[in-house]
Each structure stands twice: as C-alpha cells, then as structure tokens.
Amino acid sequence: MRRRLPVHGEQRKHPHLLGIAAAQAVEHYEITRYGTMLAWAKQLGLSQVEDLLKETLAEEESTDELLSELAEDAINPQAA
Ligand SMILES: [Fe+2]
Side-chain half-sphere of 23: how many Cα atoms within 13 Å? Predict the structure, then answer.
C-alpha cells in the first residue's frame, strides 16, 4: 500500500520545496565529507588531491547557495 507524507499549509502552496530541501540535505552531507577529505589531504601532504577537493567543495557550496536562493524565491516570489 502506498502512503503519502502529510502535507501542511506552506508545503501545499510550494510542493517543490520538499525536493529542494532534500537536494540541499544531500549537498550538506557532501560538504561535510569533502571537508573531511580535504583536511586529510592537507595532513598527508597530497597537494594535487587537495586542489581537486577544494574545487569540488566550492562546487558543492555553490550548489547549496543556489538551492537556498531557489527556496527563498519560491517562498517569496517578489524576491525573484
Ligand atoms: Fe552535490
């Protein structure tokens, strides 16, 4: 049997916010993992790995900021 998640007032008005929130949770997880691996690379003196992880971490942070903007714009269309 298929069950639906309960939908509350604001979620009903902005159903895509759940998807944005889920994507943002993934980004936050990735940011923590890449941050840890970056610290390890620094400790181990792996400069090439460090450079690649810095670049990847910056991409994840940029995606997180974009998702925040999408969510804020969805809630407040006048901000878009
Ligand atoms: Fe990501």
Answer: 17
Distance between Cα 20 and ligand 1 center (Å): 12
Closest alpha carbon to 21 in 66, 68, 56: 68
Rounded to the nearest angstrom, the distance between the alpha carbon of 13 and the centre of ligand 1 is: 27
Dist. CA 66 → ligand 1 center (Å): 11
For 40-52, what is each residue's pLDDT tens digit? 999 999 999 999 9
Work out the number of other CB atoms within 10 angstroms of the CB of residue 60: 19
